[in-house]
Amino acid sequence: MDPSSDEEVAAAAIVLLKWKKKQMKKRLWTRPWLARRQEGSVYYKLLRELSSEVPDTMRKWIHLSKEAYLKLLQLVTPLIEKEDTNMRDAVTAGERLTLTLRYLVAGETQASLVCQFQISAPLISSISPEVFRAIYQVLKPTYFKLPTSGDEWHQVASSYYSQWNFPMCLGALDGKRVLIAKSPNTGSEYYDYKGHFSIIMLAVVDADYKFLYVDAGACGRASDGGVWEKCNLKEAVENNLILPQKNLPSYVSFEQHQDFGTIFNNATQKKWPNVASAVKVDAGALQSK
Hints:
By secondary structure, this protein is α+β, with helices and mostly antiparallel strands.
């Protein structure tokens, strides 16, 4: 047999073996240490030990009591639960929620979460946004509830007067800048006056610090006036969409902080000329309601 032919056959065999090894690597579904998730993940070991032995430490770890955690898990499970497949077991709803809570509580990096929960980085990047949406969907009706009737607004005003000595106050309005990583191709759009990249959250709270209204996402470079102009609360106030036309006292106000106070007062006084300093109201009028 021709020696050159033998060399060609050997070379072809080597190429074929390399190709097969490469294909085997491509067909690898998951890394072995990730497949052992149920043996070493903090969810299956640490969380269960904390919940059964030291619930106070569990609360510090995820900022929820055991009861609150189980209640939230029950609410979001129908929205985030996945089915097992023939290839692998799905990441459970509990793992998804706990992973997201750790990210929210401690600002864990994706690399850190991968090591703690033994879940791949691409999957983690898809889990968090899904759980965020689920939490918002199930909790919004309870915790982001704007009053819709005169009686409900009177309750807000009554709480402000009894707890903080603010007569006829319907809410505290302020903004908060939340730092973010610079998004691609955004230039200086989110660059604020403090030298950070941020988005702005505008919120109204009642006397117990509970949110009545939240608007988030305005770019950090926007001024207070710019945020207010694009906020749907402004439209609702100016068009009488949130405050009832009857059964409210002559003087109503939101208690504001710094520049948002001037902006809101200017907007409301165009619609209600009698809106002035809340402290001028006779407290007896409120107590009689």
